[in-house]
Write a structure and sequence with these properties.
Blueprint lengths: L3 H10 L6 E5 L5 H9 L4 E4 L2 H10 L5 E4 L8 H4 L5 E5 L2 H13 L4 E7 L12 H9 L9 E8 L7 H22 L8 E3 L6 H4 L6 E4 L1 H4 L5
Parallel strand pairs: 1-2, 1-8, 2-3, 3-4, 4-5, 5-6, 6-7
This protein binds pyridoxal-5'-phosphate.
Length: about 220
């Protein structure tokens, strides 16, 4: 098996206090997840509904699952019974559907808004402007079964470290803006989910509270 335990330890040792690790286990077998679990890791992230469902059934119940991929509204009902956090909410429509399905299960699901800051046109997420518009509207305030906990984003896929740093900083500045404007009194709104295997060391200097790391722990994914 790929050296999951040692890799995990190395990653954890490189994180300052206050930054949590979401171990991204998509496409990796449950044995890999168990190896990390045995080392104490409890937060895992997946991006496909069916794969996640199977893992949830077979793995320990005290794992906190984050949905990190693009979530279609028609899939929300499947993950609503158990998902702890949906990290990539990119529309009011999706937010309302999560609220509706969470209500059916008498749950509150934690969510992050996904920002589109990177240059690639393929990346999902809300532009800063559309996120501002969403929050300026009042509808989200009526939703009692979602808790908006912060922001998530992916930096551009590039070797240009300055560009990556500037994208993380844009996200951090936007977090501060939204926090002061809408969530000043809401302690739950505190998460900044940015930083992946290749760029999390940069993210650590730009306000991240949650890094999402897959490859560096579990090795290359086999698709
Ligand atoms: C796959 C994925 C990750 C992890 O990427 P690595 O480069 O393997 O660390 C993080 N965030 C999202 C949204 C992903 O889809």
């Amino acid at each position: 098996m790929y050296n999951v335990k040692d890799n995990l330890k190395e990653v954890l040792e490189s994180l300052p206090g206050g930054v949590r690790l979401v171990a991204i286990s998509k496409y990796h077998p449950k044995e890999y997840i168990m190896a990390a679990y045995e080392e104490g890791q409890r937060i895992f992230g997946e991006s496909h509904e069916q794969e996640l469902r199977q893992k949830v059934e077979e793995l320990p119940k005290d794992i906190e699952w984050h949905f990190i991929g693009h979530l279609q509204t028609n899939k929300v009902k499947y993950i609503a019974p158990y998902i702890d956090m949906v990290e990539a909410v990119d529309s009011l429509k999706l937010l309302k559907e999560i609220d509706k399905q969470a209500a059916k299960h008498e749950r509150v699901i934690r969510v992050l808004f996904e920002l589109h800051i990177a240059e690639e046109s393929t990346k999902y997420g809300l532009t800063l402007e559309s996120c501002r518009e969403l929050l300026a509207g009042d509808e989200w305030r009526q939703l009692k079964h979602v808790q908006i906990c912060g922001l998530m984003m992916m930096a551009s896929f590039t070797d240009d470290k300055e560009q990556i740093a500037s994208e993380f900083q844009t996200a951090q500045d936007f977090f501060d803006e939204v926090k002061t404007t809408y969530f000043a009194d809401d302690e739950a709104f505190c998460e900044r989910s940015w930083g992946m295997s290749d760029d999390y060391s940069i993210a650590l200097r730009h306000g991240t509270t949650m890094v999402r790391i897959g490859t560096r722990i579990f090795g290359p994914r086999v698709y």
